[in-house]
Amino acid sequence: MDSDKSTFDRYQINIDWTLQELTDYLLTERGLSPPYKLRNLTTSRLFVREELDTKMRSYPDFEIGGARVQLEYGRYPSMSEMVVLVSMKGKESIYEPFYVPTNATVKDLKTLVCKEFENLDETKHTLYRVNYLEEPVFPLRRDT
Question: For the sheet containing 36-40, what is the strand order?
Answer without folding.
Answer: 45-46, 36-40, 69-73
